[in-house]
UniProtKB/TrEMBL annotation:
<feature type="domain" description="Na+/H+ antiporter NhaC-like C-terminal">
    <location>
        <begin position="25"/>
        <end position="191"/>
    </location>
</feature>
<keyword id="KW-0472">Membrane</keyword>
<feature type="transmembrane region" description="Helical">
    <location>
        <begin position="49"/>
        <end position="66"/>
    </location>
</feature>
<feature type="transmembrane region" description="Helical">
    <location>
        <begin position="86"/>
        <end position="114"/>
    </location>
</feature>
<feature type="transmembrane region" description="Helical">
    <location>
        <begin position="121"/>
        <end position="142"/>
    </location>
</feature>
<dbReference type="InterPro" id="IPR018461">
    <property type="entry name" value="Na/H_Antiport_NhaC-like_C"/>
</dbReference>
<feature type="transmembrane region" description="Helical">
    <location>
        <begin position="154"/>
        <end position="175"/>
    </location>
</feature>
<feature type="domain" description="Na+/H+ antiporter NhaC-like C-terminal">
    <location>
        <begin position="206"/>
        <end position="478"/>
    </location>
</feature>
<dbReference type="GO" id="GO:0005886">
    <property type="term" value="C:plasma membrane"/>
</dbReference>
<keyword id="KW-0813">Transport</keyword>
<feature type="transmembrane region" description="Helical">
    <location>
        <begin position="457"/>
        <end position="478"/>
    </location>
</feature>
<feature type="transmembrane region" description="Helical">
    <location>
        <begin position="340"/>
        <end position="358"/>
    </location>
</feature>
<keyword id="KW-0050">Antiport</keyword>
<feature type="transmembrane region" description="Helical">
    <location>
        <begin position="379"/>
        <end position="396"/>
    </location>
</feature>
<dbReference type="Pfam" id="PF03553">
    <property type="entry name" value="Na_H_antiporter"/>
</dbReference>
<feature type="transmembrane region" description="Helical">
    <location>
        <begin position="207"/>
        <end position="225"/>
    </location>
</feature>
<keyword id="KW-1133">Transmembrane helix</keyword>
Amino acid sequence: MTDETSLSGRVHQEPSYLDAILPIVALAVLIGGAMALFGLAATEGPLQVALILAAMIAALIGLGNGHRWEDVEAVGRRGMASMVGVTYILLATGALIGTWNLSGTIPTLVFYGLRLFHPDWFYLAAAMSCAVLAFSIGSTWATAGTVGVGLMGLATLVGVSPVITAGAVISGTFFGAKLSPRSPSTVLVAELTGNTMPTHLCYQAKTSAPTFILAIVIFAILGLADGTDGAGDAVIASELAALDTLFRITPLNLLPLVLLFALSAFGVPASLAIMAAALFAGLMAPVLQPNAVLTFVGSTDLGTPAAFLKGVWQAMATGYQANSGIPAVDGLLTRGGMDSMLMTIWLILGALTYGSLLKEFGLLSKLVMPTIRMSRTPAQLIAAVAVTAFALNVIVGDRYVAVILPARLFRDEFERRGIPGTSLSHTIADAGTVTSPLVPWNSCGAYMAAVLGIPTLLYLPFCFFNIASPLLALALAFKAARRP
């Protein structure tokens, strides 16, 4: 083994292959145990414990190779620092869901949707609407946390499958953002692989457009063939009446959505844009929905202005609660609040700490470099990129690491062999960015499960675009690699 300099300046041993494999095997065993014992409820604590224990095993391996505990702490701090932006977005989204319910924004979206969306075309319409919004603002998280939330509630009221709806939302959201020049991940992939944005987007469209067309065809077939006519006119009429009783339904309630759209279009960071839209909805609530706010606060000795303030503050902190007497409507509106995101933050914290230790202690590169050496043909090298990007989503739990690390490790090899950089860029995007919501402990998978209210493993089979896109990308990349 060779000696290297550690983070603290000490000389340490290069990790062995056993060192690199052991924490990954440990994580697989712990996650398997958590799923076997707790099922889908594993994300409510057991999965987080599994990630923390696996991180401790990685730390012990680092100590055994000569690193000091100060190195472990430094890596942990960097891992936590990398999730600051994610934490802000999660907390802002929780606040937004709470105030958008209180202000009538989400109820208004659902009210109009009940009138416009036919059950037979619901999944298709959900995918298309999310694709348009995500392309416009360039944010998967903002799209899922706003229109996606409304569509999930609407699915329950209309009488179609919320699980399939979640797959449609995620498929449309990631397709739109993947082709958006405003998407941070799209910009990052283009820059890291040395491609101009127009060139990168052109090659992205070659894989993304066919797979999204395939996805929406499947969603259309599912909508027509699921054998349901929806909730029925009488049920929908009662739901519309309940929404109209709880809230004053007016297009003005949609102004927070317009604000979010405008801020995102002007390049305002996602966390700031989402929080601004949440606060704006909070300001609108006492003006447009005074009765709803006072009913939410309940009996109090506070004056009206203070009661309004308490209601908005409470909606941001712990979410909104409805009591219409119709379970489907109450289930739609009773959610949100920053505290609803704390379990997700815990999950992402464990995943990023674990992934940071593997990366900084050289355990990931120990496993990846042999795949480069063993990839003798262009097709094998491209396949290695795809496998590495997806594996990093699983192991590290962060889509940006799944983009950055393969770009840095494979770019020189692609240039040395004369393989077009476009093959590298769209393979990374298709296998790294698009597959991130399919992993429960990945930051994207955890976020989508939290805001849409459907466990990752339930919606995964219906994310047709996310599943098909990397497969088609591999096929096209192999074809391009064989060209003289």
